[in-house]
TrEMBL record:
Pfam families: Ribosomal_L31. Belongs to the bacterial ribosomal protein bL31 family. The keyword Ribonucleoprotein applies. GO terms for cellular component: ribonucleoprotein complex; ribosome. Residues 85-100 have a biased composition (Basic residues). Transmembrane segments: none annotated. The keyword DNA damage does not apply. This is 50S ribosomal protein L31. One of its GO terms (biological process) is translation. Residues 80-114 are annotated as: Disordered. NCBIfam families: L31, PRK01678.1. One of its GO terms (molecular function) is structural constituent of ribosome. Keywords: Ribonucleoprotein, Ribosomal protein.
């Protein structure tokens, strides 16, 4: 490891303000507030959310759709399904074209035979 290029780290306690959970670790962050644990001063860093309170990690995840994205997507898919039900596929289009060509050919043959 090269000397004097790495930031200095300090012992810190991250405190989750929403549930009160505390995590002791080392970080480059500092704060005004400190707590002495086993003779070592730890900086106290308050955080609003952590793995102890985040819905993804606690299993209490609720989908909050403020921009109506889910409803808009559902409406878009319904419209697409309606259009797809009315729309004709390639096979039907080919058969219709072939039928039209055959009827044209038959009408020309009948004109020629007269």
């Amino acid at each position: 490891m090269k000397q004097d290029i790495h930031p200095t780290t300090h012992p810190v306690i991250f405190v989750d303000t929403s549930c009160g959970a505390e995590f002791m670790t080392h970080s480059t962050l500092k704060s005004e507030e400190t707590r002495s644990i086993d003779g070592t001063d730890h900086y106290i860093i308050n955080v609003e959310i952590s793995s102890a309170s985040h819905p993804f990690y606690t299993g209490k995840q609720i989908l909050v759709d403020t921009a109506r994205r889910v409803e808009k997507f559902a409406e878009k898919m319904k419209m697409q399904e309606k259009k797809a039900a009315v729309r004709k596929g390639k096979k039907v289009k080919r058969a219709t074209r072939a039928k039209a060509k055959n009827s044209e050919a038959n009408s020309e043959e009948s004109k020629d035979s007269k």
